[in-house]
Write a structure and sequence with these properties.
The protein is an alpha/beta fold. Helix content is about 35%, strand content about 20%. A hairpin with a 2-residue loop joins β1 and β2. α2 runs parallel beside α3 (about 160-170). The longest helix has about 35 residues, at about 5-40. The relative contact order is 0.11.
Length: about 200
């Protein structure tokens, strides 16, 4: 069976084109793979770990780019020590105590309605909270005279009649020396959402 010359030439041309297309695609895939390896850094020589570990303490956090940066101590930025004024109010009493910058209660630095000569129902009055705050302010003035300049953080917790008295005394003449020392005011009253049944209210 004889094949025409035209058909033979057409088949040879198609075969030649297919070989050329295959060679160009292989070169393109090789170039793409080389570029991909270069972008990934695989073709670069890898770091070799030292034979002996470094001597002395080693800071592993320095190798972590996500580790928080360390703040350098700035002696000039340190201000006066911050003392804490804690006031706890309940419907039946008012409690106030002072704490040093480390959070430890100060000696002779706590007062309640009972320690201020109020007994029974009178411990829940505004006058009891007022007297507690006056004694605390006198103690703060003594600390300023002994230690020098200080700052004060006020922490309030709970509700009661004594709370309004303590908040108002900061604005009166008794609080003129203490008011400039206040740099922070925080309300630490607990907010209960759901949970178990509340304890029965105490009645006096």
């Amino acid at each position: 069976m004889s094949i025409r010359q035209s058909v033979l030439r057409a088949s040879q041309l198609v075969l030649h084109q297919s070989r050329h297309l295959h060679a160009s695609s292989s070169r393109a895939s090789a170039a793409f793979s080389n570029d991909l390896l270069a972008d990934m850094g695989v073709d670069r020589p890898r770091r070799v770990a030292p034979e002996h570990p470094p001597k002395g303490p080693f800071d592993f956090a320095s190798l972590n780019p996500l580790a928080p940066s360390k703040r350098l101590p700035n002696k000039h930025a340190q201000g006066p020590p911050k003392y804490h004024f804690h006031a706890h109010f309940t419907p039946n009493n008012t409690k106030i105590f002072l704490a040093d910058p480390d959070g430890r209660p100060l000696p002779k630095g706590w007062w309640t309605g009972g320690s201020c000569k109020f007994k029974g129902v009178n411990r829940s009055t505004q006058e009891a909270g007022y007297q507690c705050a006056v004694n605390a302010f006198n103690r703060i003035n003594d600390i300023v005279a002994e230690k020098g300049p200080i700052t004060l953080a006020v922490h309030l917790r709970g509700f009661g009649k004594g709370r309004s008295a303590v908040e108002q005394i900061f604005l009166t003449s008794e609080g003129d020396k203490v008011r400039p020392l206040v740099v922070e005011v925080e309300d630490r009253t607990h907010i209960k959402i759901g949970g178990t049944r509340a304890k029965k209210a105490r009645r006096l």
